[in-house]
Each structure stands twice: as structure tokens, then as C-alpha cells.
Amino acid sequence: MSVNYLWRWFGTALCFFLFGFFSFLVWAILFPVIAVFLGEGVAKKRRSRHLMHWVLRRYIGIMRTLGLLSYEVESGERLNRPGRLIVANHPSLIDVVFLLSLTRNATCIVKPTLLRNPFMRIPIRAVGYVYADDPKKLMEVCEEELREGSSLIIFPEGSRTTPGQPVKFQRGAANIALKSGAKILPVRIDCTPTTLTKQEKWYQIPPKRVLFRLQVGDDIDPCEQGDGDKRTIAARNLTAYLEQYFLASQSGAKH
After folding, report:
1. Distances 83 to 4, 20, 105, 153 between C-alpha atoms, Å
2. Model pTM greater than 0.85?
3. CB within 8 A of 104, min separation 6: which ones?
4. Residue 235: which CATH number?
5. Between 183 and which of 44, 120, 157, 219 could a Cys-Cys bridge form, CB atoms 3.0 to 4.6 Å apart?
6. pLDDT value at position 255?
7. Smallest Cα–Cα separation from 45: which of 59, 32, 35, 56?
8. Quick one: DSSP state of residue 80?
9. Based on the structure, what is the number of domains in the chain?
């Protein structure tokens, strides 16, 4: 077992600890003091998300400085176009950390069960991330966020990608895009070697430093690609189009 491997194992453990520690420090202790200067309503939510963006950008920087990972971003400026539905594949646990660190006014859909996690509950409520048990209510909140100019991050697979398997999307992202009329911004994420997949624990670190590649595509008009007289047919067609888009980019990445 090499010194480099032991260092990266220690660094990984340290970063998981820091994530929990700073979640508590920033959002439970510092944020209530800062919040009084952030205004109210939509303005407060936007400024809170800018703070989250800043914190996670530094967190990614710590992981890079420790030698745990490196990353490349292609056309990352597109992520800050307002009111976009950011659709991405999901190879690793920290994909959302990357996207939030690159997008200043971003929200995402979180499972209501995460609100029971003391480290996650505080930042989720502080920045107004989307959660709802009722699908109809969830759709309404997503549509409202996009109308306000927020970027909404969605992983249509619903769970982390199984390495070596083609993407298989659920129709939620297509339904939100069609109902809101928001442009879809596709983001292809590659992670080499794999790390923090659904099958891997945090301590099962890869044999070498991980390289993340994020390729941000052009806007996709959901109305042009989701042809169909009925919403269910249009959503099915749009989902199939998105799957083919990611399969094609996946094939291109392998060559």
C-alpha cells in the first residue's frame, strides 16, 4: 500500500468530516447571523444560494489541493444562464456538489427523508431546495423556481449510474420541462476512475486520483423535441431524445 494511497484515504476521510462540520458551522451558527442582511423572499433565497455556491466551490478546491481529484469543465459559463433545467447523468455521489459549485443560483430536488439528517436539514431549508411528498406540489414548486430565474438541477436516472451501463431516464425532468417551457441544459459528467458510485463506500477509494470531466451542452427546447398531442406522449418522446443524447455523448467519450 503506497504512501499516496494512504494520503488520499486520509484526505477522503477528512473531507467527509469537513462536509459535516462546515454544514453545521456555516448553516446552523453563522447563517442565522448573516441571514438578517440577505433581505427577504426571492432575493434572500438567491443570495443564500450564492453563499452555498461559494462554500462548495471552496470545498471542491480543498479536495483538489489534497490531491483527491482534478476536474475539467467545458462551456461551464452556460450553467449560469437563468431559468435553465440542468439535466445530468449521475456517476458519483459528489456530482451535485460540482454542479452547485459551478452554478450561482441553483436549486435541486432532494428527498424529503434528507430532512431527517441533521447535517443536511439545515442547508436544505436555508437555501430553499425543492422537496415535496406530493408529486403535483413538487411540479408546481419546480415551475415556480424556473419562472423566478433559478437553475434547477435534475438527475433523471433517479439514482447514481451503474458503471458500464447505459443511462435510463425517468420522465420527471421531461414533464417539468414541458410544463414550465424552460430550456434544458444537458451536462455530461465523466468520472475516471469511478468513485463514490452506488456500489462503493466512501473508504473504497480508487487506485489513483480521480478526474472529473463536465461537458455542458447547448440548450434544448423541450417543445421542439417533445412532439406529441398529449403530455404523456410528449414526455415519453422528450425522455427518449435525452437518453439518446447522453448515449451518443457517452459513446463519443469512449473513443
Report:
1. 43, 30, 9, 11
2. yes
3. 49, 50, 53, 80
4. 3.40.1130
5. 219
6. 41
7. 35
8. G
9. 1
